[in-house]
Amino acid sequence: MTHFLFGLLIALLAPPVQAVDSTRLEVRAFIETMVHDYGSDRVQLTALLEDAQSVPSILSAISRPAERVVPWYEYRARFLNARRIAQGGEFWDANANRLQPLLDSGLAATVAGIVGVETSYGRAGGSFRIVDALATLAFDYPPRSEFFRSELRHFLLLAREERIDPSNALGSYAGAMGIPQFIPSSYRQFAVDADGDGNRDLWSNWHDVIYSVANYLKVHGWRDGEAVATEAKLAGADLTRFDVSTLALNETVQSLRDKGVRFETRMPPEAPAMLAVLRGKSGPEYRVAFNNFYVITRYNRSTMYALAVHELGQAVRKAQLSK
Question: Would residue 156 count as lying in a domain?
């Protein structure tokens, strides 16, 4: 059964909301692991999980992410609009000193794109209790229950480490949190205490937010000053010469040109690249994407997401430079 059909079936058949049953075998096993392997307090953890709610709308939402159900031209319009770009300008003005060291590397614009796409620069961080979201997916979403049980574990450990109240923290339907929407494992691994105040705060500390996103990108292979993507044209409509079914740098600048892709770039002929095909309003649109584009897809495994991040970030930076 596909994730979509499973989520739809749950949404149609399940009661509106139900408490997590701590007597269920998988819930009991999770509690035992947290107590014995990580020193959690059994009584407190059991109470937290019993207070958590399994929410069918979460199951429906995770089966229909926007990147799968809307064409590129509609997806792009959600983020590349005057309002979002203006919000990005406000973000840039307020954080100019923090962004300055990231300008030459290209990270400043990309960070601006990510936090703009993720939460409208902190305006839409999510309204689900993270414990509800993760418990729902950990125990009532078999297609990815193992992954989300791991994320629930990371969330509980993060709450202990960063002194977060696990019963009140809010985030997305998938358990992503804060202005940059880090999932718990990414928060623990990649967030940084940029201002040295002893906390890694991704909800309200812009210094931590900006440099945590930059750190995530650097760790995943960002190359300073390199291009992200460029518009392209294709000689003919034959895509059989290209593997566009996966997110992979499976071409080079030269191999794409040899196959009839026309584009401008300063990247060398041997630079790894990929051809992205998108559904535009008037027909297919093409982009040639490079290493740094692929790095953005490590944040969210979607071509449309990475391109929206790149184009929004560039639009915000261009608007700032024109002032």
Answer: yes
Structure tokens belonging to residue 239: 């895509």
Domain that holds residue 157: 3-64+126-177
Q: Are 188 and 154 spatial neighbours (Cβ–Cβ below 8 Å)?
A: yes
Residue 71 lies in a domain: no
- Listed in sequence order, the residues at least 6 apart from 84 whose beta carbon sits closer than 8 Å to its beta carbon are 116, 120, 312
For the stretch 65-90, pLDDT in tens is 655 678 999 999 999 999 999 999 99
In the structure, what pLDDT confidence band is assigned to residue 1 with cuts at 50, 70 and 90?
very low
Q: What is the pTM of this model?
A: 0.91
Q: Give the residue from 310, 314, 243, 315 showing the smallest Cα distance to 273.
A: 243
Identify which of 157, 127, 160 has the alpha carbon closest to the alpha carbon of residue 57.
Answer: 127
The total domain count for the chain is 2
Instruction: Check which CATH number belongs to the domain holding 168 and give it.
Output: 1.10.8.350
* Catalytic sites, residue numbers: 118
Unique residue bearing structure tokens 């993720």: 118
pLDDT tens figures, 166-188: 999 999 999 999 999 999 999 99
Distances (CA, A) of 143 to 3, 137, 148, 224: 7, 9, 10, 37
Q: Are residues 155 and 277 in the same domain?
A: no
Residue 57 lies in a domain: yes
- The alpha carbon of residue 93 and the mean position of all alpha carbons in its chain are separated, in whole angstroms, by 24
| pLDDT per residue as tens digits for the range 8-31 | 555 555 556 788 999 999 999 999
